[in-house]
Amino acid sequence: MSLFRKIIVTKGPEPREQIILRGVDKATPGLEIGPSHRPIAAKRDGFNVRILDHLDAASLREKYATHGVDTDAIEEVDYVWTGQPLDELVAGERFAWIIASHVIEHVPDLVGFLNACDRILAPGGVLSLAVPDKRYCFDCERENSSLGRVIDVAHAQSTNHSPGTAAEYFLKVRRKGGQIAWDERHQGQLEPVHGLQDALHAMAKVREGHYFDLHAWVFTPDSFRQIIRDLHELRLIGFQEQHYHPTRGCEFFVTLSKASSHGRAAA
User: pLDDT per residue over 24-34, tens digit each?
Assistant: First the structure.
């Protein structure tokens, strides 16, 4: 969904893909959301997977043709998402697992996204997430997203980012030593990526209904895990944490599982 995943750092003893695929049986039907040119569960590797993205495969290859990436890795897209509910888009299909790498931070309504994933997962299904750690990416000077804002956005059933989100993003994102993502060893000075005019322009465009693909939500591992726990306790989501893997490079990993139904409340 963004240029961000192109620069992910993948050092460490356990391969990144193995972490994300924990709990995934490649023979069972699954869904990967927004893999673009970096699929985790590729069809060519034998996964029984459907691909959901914001463009079809031909359009994605055209989009990334000048980005210096392997466009041959882009797989055929089964579902092109244009903003409709996921369960409507997949037309009644159910999946044993869903993978969403660097997706959840982009969605306008975090609770709505999680519950949409819940609805299309079969009983016992899992949602595997790779999430940027704000301490090691361009979000480093932004405040952690609050539980209150997560709930308020869900209550409003927002389908686009707010002017305030756009303003904060374009004013606050930073490079460090020329990089927009890094690991704990990276050195360098922080510098703005955008400026005041960018923020003003984005606010005006959002008011007109334009959609910017930006980070609406900002987390550290602790803040994300606490929000998931709180949302579950408040009966706003059915998911619970099944597995957590701490930050590797600029990202951390969380697998959520469908819990016993307890009658979710309205946000």
Answer: 999 999 999 99
